[in-house]
Amino acid sequence: MREYIEKREFRELSEYASYSRESKGRKYKEKQCDFRTCYQRDRDRIIHSKAFRRLKHKTQVFIAPEGDHYRTRLTHTLEVSQIARTIARSLRLNEDLTEAIALGHDLGHTPFGHAGEAAINEVYSGEFSHNKQSLRVVDLLEKRKKDIPGLNLTKEVKDGILNHTGDGKPSTLEGQIVRIADRIAYINHDIDDALRAELIGFDELPLDSLKILGKSHSERIDTMVRDMINESMNKDKICRSEKIYNATQVLRNYLFENIYFGSLAKKEESKAKRLIKLLYNYYIKNISYIPDEFIKRINSSNKEQIIIDYIAGMSDRYAIQAGKDIYIPEPWFIK
Asked: Of 81, 103, 107, 315, which one's alpha carbon is 20 to 30 angstroms from that of 162?
């Protein structure tokens, strides 16, 4: 079955697609699966990882929101995956590679979203970024086999995860799709969540951008996706039209000015950052309180890195409970 799928890719996919059979492979050699391609295996490994499951309790934008319908890091990831797969399929690129990159791109995010990332950078002597941490998660921190570190993903998937944000550029078109799909997803779902929370009113959104992109959530996504497909068809790079790109940037800038900084949705951010710093400073002095699975990495990592790995892997609720356990005294009763 795997060989059949690999042959079908050569028949059906674009000449610019990443063919499974031509993958640059894994760091550690493994026997091929009989019925799944290398990218399908990578997707499955990510989905079954502990880091992926923890995304359901990690902040996207709104810290500890009351309500069932606000996005979390997991629902964001699923939305990115769906948008990216639609684009990849339409461009006849490798949908399995695209999906694997999308599902793994945010595995390294800290608790409390970018507030947690900022807090770590204020106390850590190195430089922390969630895309590099995501690569560290799949390369080292997740455990699949005793004799092989990490998930041992293909180089193409790891490249897409690392370069979904930041200065680097993905080496595959599938990775380039995920990089833009990430923005399409968060721009639109963060507007949706902000409207639901009544932090902004619809009439406050940039009207000129809405006229171009669409007034509804689905219309805007459809416009952005169609533009990417039309502009990138039969090309060796992923493109967007200047008109749609500029309108999208206006919406993104609006979010940064009105939601991501200084809004009521961020009122708990200072507490979240303080908690992350308290945890970091506590574990620096009491590293023995970190679970053994992290302590064992002292031989291969420095003390700070072990603590960063531990804290970055926490969900919001786990970090809050850890803070309570360390700093909040328990009542003592005499029987």
From this structure: 315
